[in-house]
Amino acid sequence: MANIEKRGNSYRIKVSCGYDAKGKQVTQRMTWAPEPGMTKRQIEKELQRQTVLFEEACLQGNMVATIKFEDFAKQWFKEYAEMRLKESTLQGYHSMESRIYKAIGHIRLDKLTTRQIQKFILDLCEATCEGRRNRDKKLSTKTIKLYRSMISSILDYAVKMQMIRENPCKNVQIPRVTTPEKEYYTIEEAQKLFELFEDESEHNYIYVCFHILAIYSGFRLGELMGLEWKDINFDTNVVTVNRTCLYSKDKGHYTETPKTALSMRSLKLPQDVMDVLNKWQGLQDKQRKKVGSKWIETDRVFTKWNGETLDRSAPGRYFKKFCERTGMRYVSNHSWRHLNATLLINSGIDVKTVQSCLGHSVATTTLNLYCHTFQTAKAAAMEAVAEALPLSYSKNGKITATKCKDDSKSEKDAS
Prior knowledge:
Blueprint: E1 2-7, E2 10-19, E3 25-32, H1 40-60, H2 69-84, H3 87-104, H4 114-126, H5 141-160, H6 187-197, H7 205-217, H8 221-225, E4 232-233, E5 238-240, E6 244-248, E7 252-256, E8 266-268, H9 271-291, H10 314-326, H11 335-346, H12 351-358, H13 363-369, H14 371-388, E9 391-393, E10 399-401, H15 405-414
Antiparallel strand pairs: 1-2, 2-3, 4-5, 5-8, 6-7, 9-10
């Protein structure tokens, strides 16, 4: 928006060009003087024309946007991200900085194009994970989307600060990346697992309790680790998710609000599961008395020997050794959540209820993640219709509805 100030026989036009990397507003000025003999109406018309031309020139030659992407991104972290985003999201974005800066960090904001960002995304499709553990594993589609999301958020902020006209990341496409199909337990394998858990010692009962609760609740890892005894009502068999427990190198274990607003939820669990929780509570009380003053009161359900929050990686480490020891096929902890969703869907539960149980923010997330399971359940439903009302098609073209076995039996019993 231009500001016009009359100064004697001339006019000073001032245009705001947004803000620089340090948040300071940048303005440009010009002076225009009408030619002698111009009428008042002619002066007003020409003044407006000169103002529009100057505004356009400022936008096209905006000096503010000459800042490099990396420098502006670091300012975005301080001015926006650190004040608005969750700690876990910030950690994820910080871990992606080096790759992004190496590819496009040296490019000026006003020179950054959709094509340059698209090339970076395509390169990510061929890249592998960083770190020792998964260095030979290719990046997943979800991870690549996170890279695009971070870049887009930074450029959206640049648009709001009037440093660039539009976000060049808007039209960047994510190509399909072929990733190995994830492995999950079948219902039969889960039943076998429960049988093997019966032989576990009291020393490992915390992990038995953890995995059984994970299967029957479908809670995320952070939600399970953040559970406190006050969240469990043994009278009503209701367990409530009020928080999530996360970890960072700087903070260690810390508590945060759940992933989404709908992640705060309550589920009623079977009595057998509540009995397992009750038994673990008794064993934890024995441990508290054993260590005495060394016990650190956190009220957490899953704790170390001294009451501190259990390490997030501990259940996974235990289960890997458990599978090696028993010959059970190993799958990751997140498979429990998938198994829970599969059981719900195959039981005929509608998508909105499944969404609510899993704590997804929208139903489309549930449908996208478990599309194949829903399709399988629909196919089974159609088979149920066929079994309930069998159809007989003879060679002569006659169609007859065959009586169900149960109906025939009922008629025979009635006679």
